[in-house]
Amino acid sequence: MYLCMTTTITVEGMSCGHCEQTVEEALEEVTGVTSVTVDRESEQASVDGEAEVTALVAPVEDAGYTAHA
Predict the structure, then answer these.
(1) Rg (CA), the chain
(2) Quick one: which of 62, 68, 60, 56 has its CA closest to 6?
(3) I need a surface site. Which of 6, 10, 23, 44 has the fewest CB within 10 A?
(4) pLDDT, average across residues 15-43
(5) Alpha-carbon span 37 to 8, nearest angstrom
């Protein structure tokens, strides 16, 4: 049995639902991620699973957004 932790990162630059979906899809591809919730209004992405913060920031930035823990 393992513990699933939730990590929240800040994502800047999202302006629409498509942006949220793009960020969500990028994060879902990260190894160890089990679920993702993205909210452009709060500029936050909550990620459940076992993934390092750096592994979460990189694909979001590759998608064209600014991300940090």
Answers:
(1) 11
(2) 56
(3) 6
(4) 97
(5) 9
| CATH code assigned at 14 | 3.30.70.100
Which pLDDT belongs to residue 4?
78
Give Cβ neighbours of residue 39 (< 8 Å, ≥ 6 apart): 20, 45
Overall pTM surpassing 0.90 (yes/no): yes
**In the chain, what percentage of residues exceed pLDDT 70?**
96
What CA–CA distance (Å, rounded) separates 23 from 9?
Answer: 11
Rounded distance between C-alpha atoms, residue 18 and residue 14, angstroms? 8
Give the pair of three-digit tokens for residue 68.
Answer: 């940090």
